[in-house]
Amino acid sequence: MFFKCNISVNIKDTKMDISNFLVDCVASGLPDPEVSWSLPDGTIINNALQSDDSGSRNRRYIIFGNGTLLLQQMGKNDEGDYTCYAKNTLGEDAMKVSVQVIPNSPRISSKDQVSLWAPLGHAAQMTCDATGEPPPAIIWISPNNEIITSSSVKYQILNDGTLIIKKVTLADQGKYACVARNSAGDDIKNVKLQVEVREPHINGKGGRTESKVLAVSYQTLLLNGTLELRGVRKTDEGQFLCVAKNYLGESSLAVDLEVASLAEKPSFLMPNIEVLPLKADGDDITLECRAIGKPKPEFVWILPNSTVLAPGMKLKRFIHALGNGTLHIIQPVPSDKGVYRCLAKNVAGQAEKPAPVKISFGQTLNMPCTVDGWPQASITWTLPNGLVLDRPQVIGRVTYLSNGTLQLRETAKFDRGTYICKATNTFGSTTLSYPTALKFSLRSWLFFLLLTFSNAFSDAEVWILGRPLHRSKHTNSFFV
Question: Name one Pfam family in it (predicted).
Fold first, then answer.
């Protein structure tokens, strides 16, 4: 027995959830009929088309096996006639459903009043997420009850309804209202804006700060972007005071400006190298570095191991005094020998004064002679005996190294004198002197008297034993 198909249509809760629209299409018949739906725009969908969907079309429509149609995310544009068709070999039936979308009033998510803190002078952002049908318009109302427009210079309203205050001021504090409105009604959310404030800071510091700046007449003074002086003159000297204040307090920066009419590169009062004795059980050693210049130079000491000591620094037994360029070596030991370099610098340049500690008796003495300049300078060494060395070579215990250093091995008392390094190029020459004063301390002595007799008178030789060995001869008279 065969039956023609019949359709009954049931619409479920279309007013309760406008985002999803569900329509039942119950078809009966024998054989079982096939169900398809015709949409308001004329599109026909069925289970076969649905299974072949490539995914390029947004699948907002779903047909279940029992013929039920589900329309997801329904909006005003989905209004119209939906027709259900049931068809088998004996015939077909159809049922039309007219759908009208009823407006849905706006709803703002998280509509409880919130408090927002924003730093003074920074941007602040307030969100307002709302849904409804038709989609609601977002309106922002300022604390003084004025509607904020998108054309405002101070504010910016994004497409999603977010309000941005570009630069927060104290006047921006208060309650902002977000109103979501459409034809079905409106919803409101309040946001309380509070501004973070603090007392002024200058260069990252609060309170009163003092600074001293030195400039010369051919320089430009730039003070942290706050004050710019061009072509400063002697009459510009004095104290400049920067004051920043708000209702929480104030900060100030006092700057003492000193203008030097002419800057002078540092130079040393004693340009020659000083050689100091190093004793194993001696007193502390003090190395002086006295230099003049305009403005007053700052000093830096470089130890033999290349360690740099700034003013006021202390490294184990080495102390660089603050201000006067003095280096103290506490309880010196033999390993402290070497070249101690002193640098004096100011805005006009820098100068260097080598100050080597004297090497113990009988050891090797290195006298460096480093030259900077172009064209490259030639170096000659003049020894205390007048001998001139004009190229790297070895003469006895004296070695002229390729880097310009003069090396004296196995130093002895007769090596005392002045060693002079002279550097010459096409623009002139300069000299550097190493006056050396090698000291020798005799150890405790043993005396041994050897007497030889010849007739009534005798010549007696007296030998003094020690390092080095000394010998003297005396003539004495003896009675036999």
Answer: I-set
